[in-house]
Amino acid sequence: MRAALMRILLANANTTEAVTAICAASARAVAAAGTEIVPVTPRFGPAIISSRAENAIAAHGILDCLAEHHEGCDAAILAVSYDTALGAARQLLPIPVIGMTEAACMAACLLGGRFGLVTFSSADLYREVITAHGFAQRLSRIAIVDATPYDAASDPDAVARKVVIAARSLAAEGADAVLLGGAALAGIGTRIQAEVPVPLVDGIAAAVKLAEAMVGLGLPKPRTGGFAAPVGRASLALGDALAAMLARR
Fold first, then answer.
1. Alpha-carbon dihedral angle through residues 66, 5, 23, 69, given to the nearest 10 degrees
2. Same domain, residue pair 178 and 216
3. Are residues 212 and 195 in the same domain?
4. Which residue range(s) make up the domain with 34?
5. pLDDT, averaged across the chain
6. Interval 31-64: pLDDT, tens
7. 229-236: long-range pairs with CB below 8 Å, 24+
8. Which CATH number is 91's domain given?
9. Spatial separation of the C-alpha atoms in residues 3 and 101, rounded to whole Å
């Protein structure tokens, strides 16, 4: 078997393996022939992030996971739609780190003027994430579907129908593209795109292509400024890999 030309770490911040599997399938469907997708799930944290408290807890879990598994990878993708701990991960890791919602927003802005977002819950959190990325003025509306990430894994056809209805409503209101907000919705866009009149942007797919592009550019990590590697300090009760990265000088 020929060795991969590029290895991309796909790190889910939720601890639900079924969601990791959904994201990995979506990533592999768009990855270049020489790209290997390496899916990982944190060893601790919330099963599904749906609140600020769970998101804060998940930040520790995803950083621990990235520290343990990034060796040998050329880039990392946060397979979590809140882009949990993205800034911290970029500072910590020596490789490019791409957030799936950040990537989706960037792709949507290349497709038109304004974009909508379809998701399961937590509209306020999504607005905060999109605002933090600088795209608040491009967001038209967030549509909430009556389903859960568990439903997307167990009954994807029923969830797909609800997403179609929500995406059509956003398009009717003037959205030029619709983001699929939620790692559990990864891959669903290709199944229903023909039923929606505007592009459906899959954050995992967008992140894979951006990660491949960043690796291809070969740009170095900043050595100064806010995203340079953290100055080494001792920590208490962290996982070995994360503690070692934080203590590195």
1. -20
2. no
3. no
4. 6-100+206-247
5. 94
6. 999 999 999 999 999 999 989 999 999 999 999 9
7. 229/91, 229/92, 229/94, 230/91, 230/92
8. 3.40.50.12500
9. 30
2-34 tens-digit pLDDT: 567 999 999 999 999 999 999 999 999 999 999
Bridge partners, residue 11, by sequence: 40, 78
pLDDT of residue 190: 93
How big, in percent rounded to 5, are the helix, strand and coil portions of the chain? Answer: 50, 15, 35
Dihedral angle over CA of 51, 54, 58, 60, nearest 10:
120
Assigned domain for 1 exists: no
Cα distance between residue 44 and residue 161, in whole Å? 33
pLDDT digits (tens, 9 = 90+) for 165-197: 999 999 999 999 999 998 889 999 999 999 999
Residues 145 and 88 in one domain: no
> Which tokens belong to 159?
């969830």
Q: How many domains does the chain have?
A: 2
Domain co-membership, 95 together with 217: yes
In the DSSP assignment, the letter for residue 50 is -
Q: Are residues 227 and 150 in the same domain?
A: no
Q: How far apart are CA 73 and CA 214, in angstroms?
A: 13
143 and 21: one domain?
no
Cα separations in angstroms, 167 against 1, 86, 121, 186: 42, 27, 15, 15
Tokens of 40: 């990982």
181 and 122 part of one domain = yes
Instruction: Please give the DSSP secondary-structure letter assigned to residue 174.
Output: T
**Predicted local confidence at residue 249, as pLDDT:** 63
